[in-house]
Amino acid sequence: MSRRLNKSMGMCLPCLGGAADDVVVTPDPETRRQQLAEAAEKRQKETAYRGVKNPEAVERKRKKQEEAEKQAMSTSVSGGGGGLKWQVG
Q1: Per residue in 20-64, pLDDT tens?
Q2: Which end of the chain has the least Cβ crowding within 10 Å, N or C?
C-alpha cells in the first residue's frame, strides 16, 4: 500500500516542480491603479464607438464642431451682441 501512495505522489510532484516559476508578482498599488484606469478608459472608448466604422473621423468631426462653437462664443462675447453697433449723435 505504501508503494501505491508513493507512486501516486510521484505523479503529482512534476506538476509542483515548476510552481515557483509560475508565481505572478503583484505590482505596487499605484501601478495597479494606473493599469485599471487605462483598462477602464479603453473599455469606455470601445463602448462609445461600438458600431462606428471610423472612430477617428467621428473624433475629428467632434473636435471641429467644438472648435466652431468655441469660436462662435468668443466672437459673440467680443462683438458685443451679434455685431450690431449703435451710433448716437
Answers
A1: 566 778 889 999 999 999 999 999 988 887 888 888 898 899 999
A2: C
